Structure to design on (240 residues):
């Protein structure tokens, strides 16, 4: 009976940690600068169909988005281990947003987050290193992990689909749909679906992230990647 109570307690603790990190990421992921909206269902979400939410304008890219899975463009070089140097095109902007988010959301190391900021941030975003470094700190706290040093835990974002908004020749908002996986020291793994917005700007010969000013909550665009629901909401699949 005692063993059952202990197991129930541990289960409640794991659920509480998941809820806590969900709440933190929704409200202040990466120091409140970039918002990722996580679903409350697991990644194996049921497929279905629904129309796009009212008030969501269709993307207006300066070039047509490719039909079928979008093959990511690779950066021409790396900075701090981050691929950079993308072409001045919609494909370049989408690829940069996807690769940048995959780096930003996949670390629990504040120093690493600050390095990533040095590679992806628009020069006008002067506090990028400090603000992005706050993300891992907030996530560690939400997961009940030590504030510094090794944790035995891991976080990983796997982008799976995208949309674009308000595209011009030198700026575009890219929405990335992906799986966010947390692995705790006890081996407990949790995977959820998130929407990650990136306002991209062409500056100094590359696509960079200015300090985000988006006020939209993209929760109504959550859907299982590859599902009928995702397609109905305008998500286009990604391919390496």
């Amino acid at each position: 009976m005692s063993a059952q109570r202990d197991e129930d307690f541990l289960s409640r603790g794991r659920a509480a940690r998941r809820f806590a990190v969900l709440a933190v990421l929704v409200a202040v992921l990466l120091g409140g600068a970039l918002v990722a909206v996580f679903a409350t269902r697991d990644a194996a979400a049921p497929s279905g169909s629904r129309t796009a939410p009212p008030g969501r304008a269709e993307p207006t890219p300066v070039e047509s988005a490719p039909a079928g899975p979008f093959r990511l463009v690779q950066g021409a070089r790396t900075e701090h281990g981050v691929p950079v140097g993308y072409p001045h095109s919609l494909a370049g902007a989408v690829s940069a947003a996807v690769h940048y988010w995959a780096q930003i959301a996949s670390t629990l190391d504040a120093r690493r987050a600050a390095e990533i900021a040095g590679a992806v941030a628009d020069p006008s975003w002067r506090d990028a290193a400090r603000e992005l470094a706050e993300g891992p700190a907030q996530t560690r706290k939400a997961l009940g992990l030590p504030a510094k040093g090794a944790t035995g835990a891991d976080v990983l974002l796997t982008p799976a689909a995208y949309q674009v908004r308000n595209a011009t020749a030198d700026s575009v908002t890219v929405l990335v749909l992906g799986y966010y996986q947390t692995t705790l020291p006890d081996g407990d793994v949790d995977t959820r679906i998130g929407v990650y917005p990136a306002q991209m700007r062409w500056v100094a010969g590359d696509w960079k992230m200015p300090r985000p000013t988006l006020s939209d909550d993209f929760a109504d665009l959550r859907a299982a990647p590859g599902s009928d629901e995702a397609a109905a909401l305008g998500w286009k699949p990604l391919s390496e």
